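Because discrete structure vocabularies remain unfamiliar, we turn briefly to a single example record, giving the amino acid sequence and backbone structure tokens:
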Amino acid sequence: MRKSASERNMSVLYLALACLLYYPIASGFTSTLQASTEEVHSGSTIYIETVRDGRSTVRVINEPGELKELSEAYGIRIKNGDKIMLENDTFTNTGRISGIKSISLGVPIGINTAEALDLAALPGIGNKLAERIIDCRKNSGGFKSLDELRSVEGIGDKKLEALRSKASLD
């Protein structure tokens, strides 16, 4: 029996998702995740998304020297979760990996820079709570500690603890 086009597309989507989730697990990423009150680091693995002429690729960088070379090549400071846009192999702009990709890769979402859609990708944070986080961020001039999220209506101790490994101050 032949599969319909939508069934084939869903199969490809599931395969891509499985591959996306397999690498961090297989590389031992989950065992190197460290949480602290101020900042979260995803071990020594750094994920950079490169968008070249409209095509997106997520690169895994394990060597600090490779990150330094990449930063020097584009003349910018590059950090975990950055998105680099290129046109005809020429640097045009930077951004951040989307919230959903960040969560999938284990890259913390920066509460001081993320847009509402990206914040909503965090566990227990929906669209309304994401907007309240942004309002609080604007009114306070930014968060200096993840603990300050307690001042946002709807975030208590339990929710804050769930966010610690998935959020950063970026």
